[in-house]
Each structure stands twice: as C-alpha cells, then as structure tokens.
Design goal:
The complex is a heterodimer.
Chain A (H helix, E strand, L loop, with lengths): L15 H5 L15 E7 L5 E7 L1 H5 L3 E6 L27 E2 L5 E7 L2 H9 L2 E6 L6 H4 L15 E9 L2 H7 L2 E9 L11 E7 L3 E6 L4 H12 L6 E4 L15 H13 L3 E4 L2 H7 L2 E2 L2 E9 L5 E13 L5 H12 L7 E10 L5 E2 L6 H19 L3 H7 L7 E2 L3 E2 L5 H15 L6 E11 L14 E7 L5 E5 L8 H13 L6 E4 L17 H28 L7 E4 L2 E4 L6 E3 H11 L5 E7 L11 E12 L6 E11 L6 H20 L5 E2 L2 E2 L17 E6 L22 H13 L10 H15 L1
Parallel strand pairs in A: 1-12, 10-11, 13-17, 15-16, 22-23, 29-32
Antiparallel strand pairs in A: 1-5, 2-4, 2-6, 3-5, 7-16, 8-14, 9-10, 9-12, 14-15, 18-19, 20-28, 21-22, 21-27, 24-25, 25-26, 28-29, 30-31
Helix pairs in contact in A: 6-7, 9-10, 10-17, 13-14, 16-17
Chain B lengths: L3 E7 L2 E7 L5 H8 L18 E4 L2 E4 L12 E3 L12 H9 L8 H14 L5 H7 L11 H11 L9
Parallel strand pairs in B: 1-5
Antiparallel strand pairs in B: 1-2, 3-4, 3-5
Classes of the chains: A alpha+beta, B alpha+beta.
Chain lengths: 757, 161
C-alpha cells in the first residue's frame, strides 16, 4: 500500500483563516463604485395572463434609474437542459403569462434597496387570472388546466428503466408487497441567499459576481439569454455561502441584475430576501411513489416495479435529472434481477422543483428502505440479513446502466450490526432504524455542450517552487478547494501550503461543469492529479539529467524531496531543482494540463459510494414527538482524502436529511408557500442534533484519484428512511409520508390501537 | 428623514458618523464601516448570522437600530484576532472543521465567544443551549460544539500559535 504524505491527514480548510476572521468576501459583500440596488416584482397569482405592465409611475420615483420587464429582454426560453430545446421552458422575466406565485415580472434598479422596494409598489400589472392546478395527480387528469401548450396532460418528462423478465419473476415470488409513499418538498436554505452583482461596461463586456455552484454554467446560460458571446461574460464566485443544488441554474438575481446593468452601464446588485428565497427559488421534488416488490420466502429479491409521479412545479429546471436518478437509485444498493421504473414529471402551478442534495435519491431510499423493512418483518428474515443477502458487490453490473467497481456495502452492514448489538436492549418507545444507500460520483451524462461530462485543470510551477493550481470546480463550503490542493500536493510531492489556488473565475480558470452530483472529488480530482503528474514528469526530466539514474522512472518527489525510489536518502531539494530547471528554460515556468471525461463507464456515473446508517430515535407516545438520540454511519467513499472534510459532510448531511425526515416541509395553500421564513420552516438546531459516529470502510476505487469517490451527497440519502424505520421499530407503525410529524405519529399510534381492539 | 449623529466604538476604534435613524446596526457596520464579516441571513432576527457583541452581550445586529448603539462598544468578527494572532476559539474552529461555507461562522464565533466569557467551562448541554439560536445549514453543528468544548477544556492557550 502506498504511503501518503498528504492524503488521509486531517487538513483544515485552505479558506479557513479567511472564514474565521470574517475576511472571506462573498457576493453578498461585493460593493462597486456607482453600484445600484435592484429588486424584483413577483407574481401574486399561481396562474395568470399578463395583460399589461405600466411602469411609468415607478420610473418617475426619485432615485429610480431603470425598470425592466420581459419586453426589455430577448424573451429567450432557457433551461439547464440546453441541448434539448423542448425542455428550455423558463423565461425568468415572464412576458405574457405567469405560472407560479413568485415568478418574476419586473425588476427595478435604484440608488438604494428601500427606493427600489418602494418602486415595486408603483408598478401596475394587469393580470387575468387563469384556472390553476397544484397537485400532480390532479394535473394529469383529463381537463385539468394546462400550463404549457406542448405538454399534454401537463406531463413534462417521462423516464423508463427496465431489465429482466418482470412477469416471470413475480410468478416465482413467494411474497409480493405493494405500497404507496409520499415524499415531501424541502428548501435548500443556503445561509447566503441567491445574489448577484452585474456590471456591464461600454466595451460590451459583462462581469457578474454571483453566489453559484458553477461559474461555467452561469456564463453560458447568461450568453444565451442576453445575446452576448460566452467569453464577453466573466463570472466570478470566490466564496459561495452554501448551494446544496440550488445554485447551478440561472436565477432571477443573476438575470435581472444583468438586464438592468446592460441598460444602465452601471453595476447593479440584487440580493434575494429570505422570503423570496423560500417562495421563488427552486426546491426538492415532491414524489408520489408506488412500489410493488416480489421476494422469495428466504428474503431473496426477485422483482421490483415502481411508478412515480413528481410535482414538477411550473418549469423543467433540473427536474428531468431528478426523475431519472430517483428511478436508478430506487434499485440501489441491491441486486434486483428484474426491475421496471416509470417516472412522470408533472407541471403544476407551484414553484419549480429541481436539484437538491441527493438529487431524487433520498426520496427513492426512503421508500425502498421502508418497504424492505416491512418485507423483512413479514417474511421473517432479519433486517440486516435481508440487506446482506441482496447487497450489491464489486463487479456487479446494473443491467444496461452501470458497473460497480468498488463496493464496501457488506462490511458497512457488518459494522452497523455490531453497533446495534452493542446498544443492547432499548427502553420502551425507543427504536433503531437502518437504511442502506449508494450514490454516484458525478454524472457521466451531460446536457450542456458535449454528450459527456468533463473537468480540466492547469498547473504552473514557478521559479520559487510555489505551484499555481487553476481549477474549474466551485467550493460552496463542501471543501473542494482543500481536496484539490491536497490531491495536487500529494501527486506533485509538495505540501498543501505550497499550492496557490485559483478558482471561481471564468476568465482565469479552465472549464468544469461545477459542483453538483458529487462530481468534484472524482472528476476534478482526476484532472488535477493528471496535471500534477505531468508537472512532476517535467521536473523529473531535469532531475534525471542532473542525477543520471539508470532510468527516469526510478525518480519520485515526496514532501519536497526529489529522490531515487529505491534509495530515498539519495536526492536533492525540490526547490533547488525547480529553480535550476526554470533557469534552463530561459525563465519559463513549468506548465502542465490535466482533464477527465468518463468515456464508456455506463449511463450514470463512473463510481458509486455505499453506506449503511442506523438512527436511534425516541418517540413520545403522548405527543408523537420524535427525537434523535444517536446516528452511526458506516460509509464507503473509497480512499478518504480529507478525514476532517468527510466528517463535516457526514454530519451536515445528517442534519439536512433528518430535517427532511421529520421537521422540514413547505405546506402550500393554492400554490402559496405558508412558511417562508426561518421561524416557521424548521431546520435542525444544535439541541436537536444527535450524537454522530462515523465508521470509515475503505475500499479502493480504480476510477477515482488515489482510489477516492464521492463523500458529500450520498450521505443525505439514508436518514429519512432510517428515521422512518426507527419509528417503526419503536412503535410498530410505518409512516409512509414525509415528514414524520408528531401528528402523523399520533394518528398512526391511534390507528394501531384501534386495530388491536 | 433628518440624519443623526452616531458615536460608536467598534473593535476599539471610535467612529462618529451621521446616519438616518432607521438604519440598522448591521447596515452601519457593513455599509458605512465596511465590516462585511458580519452577515445577514434573514433580516428578521431568526438566524443569528448577524450576531455582534454590544457592550459584551450578544445582539442580533439586524434587530437593533444603529442609533440604539450610540455610545456603545461593539465587537465584530474582525475584532476577534489581534493581528495575525487568532483567538483560541478561532484556532479551534480551524482544527475541528467547525465551518463549511462560512456564512454563519462570524455569528457563530461571536455567540461562542460570549458563551465562553460568561462560562469558561460549559457542559455539552450548555454549549448546545448557548448556540441554539445560531442556524447553520452545512456542518450539522457537532464540529462547532466540539470546537467550543475543546476551548472550554483548556486545550487552546491564549496567544500561542
């Protein structure tokens, strides 16, 4: 086994000191000379025609510099599924029709936010309300109001996945079970709300500072809607205050500030309020899930059939991907010899639903793991054994979809089983629930400019040995800046503090699709590793000339020491060698490039993480309140790069996913979100957080840099299901609707009492 | 609206400035004094990202009029370190990975600083109670709690690197 110098040591975030001293400059902090402030007027109707917009009064208000509506734009229907025109259905500033409460209809730039806000009240919009529909199962009915002309019965996208012989498999089943589940919505709740500062200058260049997960996407999407060349736009995003899937599509702050700035040739800043953030940005996709599963009496899985209807909201957004991934991960992390999935994404007059950490997989995992628990109990097979018996393994091929190259699932099950045994007998109304999961390390698919995903990186080694590392990935708090610095330092043979990182700027950084779908560690990581290996090869060419070993491959660099591999004590200083080499190159620095594209790796992802989580919960039978006591997660993310980062991702995922499981929801009345604030929308607080234990099960992923794979999103998948199963273990009631509120627990307990009597 | 004189000491520096009386403390700190380390996450006093110390006590600077702080001493995140020397809590935050995106970190550090100055050896429950108001969407809090606990257990000395 290779001995690492940097990898697998706890490294504090390379941006850490800037963050703990308050010097990290977020888009929210950007302030430019002559900068104006913008505000957005939003539709109060879930569905209406816009008959007329009168902006004259608002424009006359002192301090107001410009008011724009959809008529001032090119009217481009945009979407992130850019290669599929029919899925580009959102104008951002609506021209003649609004389809959800909160849809932007006009924007104002003024000398300050108060004046802009005042001007919004003076814009007169004449609407003609249209009949609206809010629930997907209503929206697909014949005669329901239609949102988009080309979407019959409001069906936006359908997805089908199938393998094996379903009918035959169900015939052989000893036990068949059918269930309906309902998975709710969830808000991302980034601490930094969506914001942008756009500055257009008479040279025809636009610079946009924005809080984003992908500066590359935003540049390209802006070029489509503004009619500018991609490279006349520069997008800068040094620090992003959280993303979780909400910040890689084009948003109203970016678009409206750009349109206003192009009109005025002055910088315009728009920061969404917390209320706007809840009401009018995208959110997790609610899903209605039908599952029918057949097993043998010993618990062997035979066939699973599922149908899903998702609440799409008014536009496509990233919903098509969530629809596919929920279907793919519904079969995870098990071997189902026969499987059929049909998914329908349905337009509704609600805010669009899209990507959120886990990307359809938390919904799938909740339903799958709740049903497996019921099956295990009814066929009389131990709940760990049934999972072990059907677990995916290294070398397993998901028919027509993917090949699993590394998989530590069985060991994860063993470790969690040990932990449960150690807990011993629990008090009444306490239960330990488990859920197993898997997730992708970046999507292979791409809908942007190329059929495949891609990442790239550039390295420049300077005369003093300091390394400039240019990456396209975006750090939104998940720690990819640190991960990339560590991978670069390890491969090149230097220390993390020798790396000067350049990111978050489309003018300076190579392209990368951004931070989503858990792609950075594997994809950007491979690109960085390749560039670092090339830089090292170049340095070793000089070293070989100087040291004259038998062959060049006998040399290596570790911790700033160039040496013969067989005789590590014989060598020379990395710094001295680089200085000499660059002198010999007439002062040119050493430049190297790396890239990664996953060709011929299946349909979904080049590598998959796996894990098992156990949640211990206590249920108060009087109030129905569920509280979390403990949470242990055995986790296979391949080779850990930064243990401190992995632990942070794990604990953060538990908090977010437990919120999804029992406290967070976005209830609506006629399309209006009823709790658009941080008091009524309840994310977990310090006092609600359980103890968390991480068990790392290390595997080696041949496709990952140093054997690493994803460690960020997949961890969001198991918690809601494990929590549901903990309530089931504690009370005997299986609650099939998220979130598991005290009211639902009480109703289930009463129902159970009734059937007993 | 007529502007009023505000005399305020922020991070040991005295300022005199004329402000509209409706200006919030967070606005004066960020927009007038350029201290953008203090964040705003909600503007309704629900997230505590804007927490600062006012005469040694924590306040949500989005819920205080700047003029209410007339004559007071304010400490923000920029006033914690002295030169390159970080406070024990800041160093502990680094070592424990007690932040991710960093947007709540300023408020979290200020709340924890106040907690430790009132109670230098808090129990686990006291730490949880003390930080109950500060929302964080990234970390799941446990790393923050470990960081505060380590300082409470004297694992970090004042002044050492």
């Amino acid at each position: 086994m290779t001995k690492f110098n940097v990898i697998n040591t706890p490294v504090h975030n390379v941006d850490g000191i800037a963050k703990v001293t308050g010097r990290a400059e977020y888009t929210f902090d950007v302030r430019l000379p002559q900068m104006l402030h913008g505000k957005i007027l939003r539709s109060p109707y879930p569905h209406a025609k816009i008959l007329n917009i009168d902006t004259t009064q608002a424009e006359a208000l002192p301090g107001v510099k410009a008011v724009v509506t959809g008529k001032d734009t090119l009217g481009v229907k945009q979407g992130i599924w850019r290669r599929y025109k029919e899925l580009c259905d959102e104008e951002i500033l609506a021209r003649d029709r609004v389809r959800y409460i909160g849809e932007p209809v006009a924007a104002v730039a003024a000398v300050d936010e108060d004046t802009a806000e005042e001007a919004l009240d003076m814009i007169e919009v004449e609407y003609e309300p249209l009949p609206a529909v809010f629930e997907p199962l209503e929206a697909i009915k014949e005669g329901a109001p239609l949102l988009h002309e080309n979407a019959e019965r409001n069906i936006n996208v359908t997805r089908h996945i199938e393998w094996g012989d379903m009918d035959e498999a169900f015939k052989q089943a000893d036990y068949v079970r059918e269930d309906w589940f309902r998975c709710s919505s969830q808000a991302h709740v980034c601490m930094e709300t969506h914001c942008a500062v756009a500055s257009y200058t008479p040279e025809g260049k636009l610079t946009v500072w924005t809080s984003t997960q992908s500066h590359y996407y935003i540049k390209v999407l802006l070029s489509d809607v503004l009619g500018l060349k991609e490279n006349d736009i520069r997008v800068i995003s040094r620090y992003t205050g959280g993303g979780f899937g909400s910040k890689f599509e084009l948003d109203s702050a970016q678009f409206c500030s750009s349109v206003l700035s192009m009109k005025l040739c002055k910088p315009v800043k728009i920061v969404l309020s917390r209320e706007e953030e809840f009401m009018a940005t995208k959110r997790r996709t609610p899903m209605f899930y039908y599952l029918r599963s057949g097993v043998k009496k010993d618990g062997t899985f035979l066939a699973k059939e599922c149908r899903v209807f998702t609440e799409g909201g008014a536009y496509t957004a990233m919903g098509a991907t969530a629809l596919y991934l929920t279907g793919f991960f519904q079969a995870f992390p098990y071997v189902w010899p026969s499987y059929r999935y049909d998914g329908y994404r349905v337009y509704t007059n609600t805010p669009p639903t899209s990507a959120m950490r886990g990307f359809g997989a938390p919904q799938a995992t909740f339903c799958a793991e709740m049903q497996i628990e019921l099956i295990a109990r009814e066929v009389g097979v131990d709940r760990i054994d049934i999972r072990r018996k059907n677990a995916m393994y290294a070398g397993y091929e998901v028919p027509g979809q993917a090949t699993i190259q590394s998989c530590g699932l069985i060991e994860c099950l063993d470790r969690v089983e040990d932990w449960i045994k150690d807990r011993g007998t629990l008090p009444p109304y306490h239960g330990i629930g488990i859920a197993a999961y898997g997730f992708m390390s970046g999507g292979i698919f791409n809908w942007f400019n190329t059929p495949y995903a891609f990442s790239s990186s550039v390295i420049q080694v300077n005369v003093d040995g300091k390394v400039d590392l240019f990456i396209g990935s975006q750090d939104m708090g998940q720690g990819s800046n640190t991960t990339m610095s560590m991978i670069c330092a390890e491969e090149l043979g230097v220390r993390v503090e020798d790396i000067r990182l350049h990111m978050g700027d489309t003018d300076k950084c190579p392209v990368d699709l951004g931070a989503w779908g858990s792609r950075e560690t594997l994809m950007q990581g491979n690109a960085v590793k390749m560039a670092a290996a090339d830089a090292k090869r170049q340095i070793l060419e000089y070293a070989a000339a100087k040291m004259s070993p038998n062959i060049v491959y006998d040399l290596d660099i570790k911790d700033r020491w160039i040496h013969l591999i067989a005789r590590p004590e014989r060598g020379l200083s990395y710094f001295d060698m680089v200085k000499e080499a660059i002198r010999g190159k007439d002062g040119q620095p050493i430049v190297a490039r790396g890239h990664y594209t996953p060709h011929r790796k299946g349909m979904i992802s080049p590598a998959y993480s796996f894990g098992v989580q156990a949640v211990e919960a206590a249920v108060d039978p009087e109030t129905g309140k569920v509280s979390l006591k403990n949470c242990v997660t055995a986790h296979d993310c391949g080779q850990v790069i930064n243990p401190l980062g992995v632990q942070g991702q794990l604990e953060g995922a538990i908090a977010m996913a437990a919120g999804y499981g029992f406290t967070e929801d976005l209830p609506m009345d006629e399309g209006k979100i009823l709790n658009p604030n941080l008091v009524d929308y309840k994310i977990l607080r310090t006092t609600e957080m359980p103890e968390t234990t991480v068990v790392e099960v290390e595997t080696y992923e041949p496709e990952g840099p140093f054997g690493a794979k994803e460690a960020g999103e997949g961890l969001t998948n198991p918690t809601a299901g494990a929590l549901g199963n903990a309530v089931f273990q504690a009370t005997g009631a299986s609650i099939k609707e998220l979130p598991i509120t005290p009211e639902k627990v009480l109703n289930a307990l009463r129902e159970k009492d009734k059937t007993k009597k | 609206m007529e502007k009023q004189l505000l005399r305020i000491t922020v991070n040991n520096e005295h300022h005199e400035l004329y402000i509209k009386p409706k200006k919030l403390l967070v606005e004066v700190l960020r927009d007038e004094l350029g201290l953008t380390g203090t964040k705003r996450g909600c503007n309704t006093g629900a997230c505590c990202a804007c927490t600062v110390l006012l005469n040694g006590k924590t306040v949500k600077s989005c819920s205080v009029l700047a003029i209410q702080a007339d004559g007071c001493e304010i400490r923000t995140v920029e006033g914690l370190a002295s030169g390159a020397e970080l406070t024990p809590l800041q160093r502990s935050f680094l070592d424990h990975g007690a932040y991710q995106c960093g947007f709540c970190t300023s408020g979290m550090l200020i709340s924890a600083t106040a907690l430790l100055s009132e109670n230098p050896t808090p129990t686990l429950d006291q730490i949880k109670e003390g930080l109950h108001g500060n929302l964080c969407r990234c970390t799941g809090y446990n790393s923050i709690i470990r960081a505060v606990r380590a300082v409470g257990e004297d694992k970090y000395e004042e002044g050492s690197k």
